[in-house]
Design a protein that fits this description.
- The protein is of the alpha+beta class and 99 residues long.
- The protein has 2 domains: 1-44, no CATH class; 48-99, no CATH class.
- Helices cover 36% and strands 26% of the residues.
- It is built from 2 helices and 4 strands.
- The protein has helices at residues 4-23, 28-43, and strands spanning 48-52, 55-60, 78-84, 87-94.
- It has a two-stranded antiparallel ribbon. A two-stranded antiparallel sheet has the order 3-4.
- The longest helix is centred in the first third of the chain and has 20 residues, at 4-23.
Length: 99
């Protein structure tokens, strides 16, 4: 049986590290980008975005104008698996954000 205490300790450590990265940023835009980058790192993902009011606010791993940055699905909470050209499958997750 896994040690629940060590899992909780790891999660707490990850949260403290995440908050430390955010608080070290000099402005909101830098903090948002750093937050997205840290989440991508923890998920071992290469592409991610923060969507606020159906608009990509922070985009990591996609060039400006990429067609995946537009569409009716932005901002809808989803978790799933999709095909990706560079890998056989990729995990996807999103949740709505608001300000």
């Amino acid at each position: 049986m896994p040690d629940v205490g060590s899992d909780q300790s790891w999660a707490t450590s990850q949260l403290v590290e995440f908050l430390g990265v955010l608080s070290a940023q000099s402005d909101e835009a830098s903090a948002l980008r750093a937050g997205v980058e840290r989440v991508l790192e923890s998920l071992d993902a290469e592409i991610g975005m923060l969507v606020v009011d159906h608009t990509p606010t922070v985009v990591v791993g996609l060039p400006p104008g990429d067609p995946r940055l537009a569409g009716p699905q932005l901002g809808r909470p989803t978790i799933g698996v999709r095909s990706a050209p560079s890998r056989s499958t990729s995990r996807t997750t999103s949740s709505p954000g608001s300000r």
